[in-house]
Amino acid sequence: MQNLFLGIDGGGTNCRARLADENLNILAQVRGGPANTTIGDGSQAYNSIIDVSHQVFKEAGLSQSDMTRTIACLGLAGAHLESSRRDFAAREYPFAKTLVHNDVETAREGAHLGEDGAVLIVGTGSAGLAKVKGEYFPVGGWGYHISDTASGAILGRALARRSIEVLDGLSEGSPLTEVVIDHLGGTQNSLMAWSFKAWPKDFASLAPFVVEHFEKNDPIALELMQFEFDQIEQFINWFKARGAQKLAIVGGLGERLIPILTERFGDYVQAAKSDAQNGALLMAQKAA
């Protein structure tokens, strides 16, 4: 029987699966829960992967037995960590073959359709990867606690911190902090309680408020976004120093910023030619 190919893009906020036939014609695609391999013991990510896999086969009108003729490629946030990648590669999957990569590898493959070029994920987390004359150059992606400086999670956390400072009377507020304070319950106690339960995806959920108010010239939004642009520029300079001729920006926050980034940094910055799920499908097809 003909092979099927499954491409999964597992991020800190959601997990997306795309099923294709041997010619990479799309049969079905679905979205599920978070799939960062380093959150907890990895069970949440693993369960999200298995869940979207079952969903996408059902959506395509195929049975679970068809999984045994499927080559799956998983591009997962957190699989940058070698121990995490090994852990997920060793887990049980219902497929004929399962490839485990980190999400920036599949994103880069999709963004440039296998050709040379760099990619920067600017989503819940952030990480980059360039391919120059067949050589790969990874950067960032070491997690929310010590890295991910261009991410929505870090931007959202900065906004939460500024908001609690405003409530404490340590700094002046703005319409941006007013909206976010109200969104998080209106008091120091409510913000504190929210923060104790917040995952990176929860902090990242605040980033759209920053972008929205940046477009309105809110002073705090302008300050926070300048930090974001500085981080992205640092990556741009890093990629250029390694010979990358173009940079695709991907991820929910990054894609929203592309018009602003092209205005600031020119046509070196561009939208991806395709997405991470397609990148995963291309990698799965190569492994057939």
From TrEMBL:
User: What are the record keywords, sorted?
Assistant: Kinase, Transferase
Q: Which residues form the ATPase BadF/BadG/BcrA/BcrD type domain?
A: 6-282
Q: Which GO terms describe its molecular function?
A: kinase activity
Q: Which residues form a coiled coil?
A: none
Matching InterPro entries = ATPase_BadF (IPR002731), ATPase_NBD (IPR043129), Euk-type_GlcNAc_Kinase (IPR052519)
Q: What is this protein called?
A: Glucosamine kinase
Question: Which species is listed as the source?
Answer: Maritalea myrionectae
Q: What is the lineage of its organism?
A: Bacteria, Pseudomonadati, Pseudomonadota, Alphaproteobacteria, Hyphomicrobiales
